[in-house]
Structure formats: structure tokens, C-alpha cells
Amino acid sequence: ENISSHFKLxxxxxxxxxxxxxxxxxxxxxxxxxxxxxxxxxCVTDECFFFERLESNNYNTxxxxxxxxWYVALKRTGQYKLGPKTGPGQKAIxxxxxxxxx
Length: 102
Hints:
By secondary structure, the protein is an all-beta fold. 0% of the residues lie in helices and 31% in strands.
């Protein structure tokens, strides 16, 4: 596999079950804004924390701690879904973490 370093994300445990998601190359944190958009933030804010949950199908979900009914979700096209349009049971909210190779 030829995976670009631009796609490497680092999950940092903030407290039990809560993570922040950092782009390794960009050195920015994933944030969910009040309108449900996903943005890159230079510093960690309360919009950068997500509840990480291992689902019964062995995929992970990431639900916003600040906007607790909204999930991080990607469409088949690679575009993100707005937080208010996400919910349990959607395939777009399922992620399969992989170990990064150096």
C-alpha cells in the first residue's frame, strides 16, 4: 500500500473514552463546529474532543463531546457529512483504525 503521510491521523487519549484527532503532517486537530462542519484547528478546543466507541461490528465511531448527538462521518466520495445529518446505524460514521507504518 502506498499511503500518503497527509492521511495519517493520530488519536490522543484525553480521558477515558474521549480522544482528540490530530493530522500528523498538518499538525492540526479535527474540530466539529456549531453548524456541524468539520474543520482543522491549530489548537485543541472543546470542539476537538470526541467519544470513541468500539461498536459490536469492530468498527469505531467518534461522537462529538460538545454536540453529543453528532458523529464524525465520511461519505463514499470522501466528503464529510454535516453533524446534524449523522446518526447511529449509518455506514458513514464507521471507521476502521489501522496502525500507521513508519
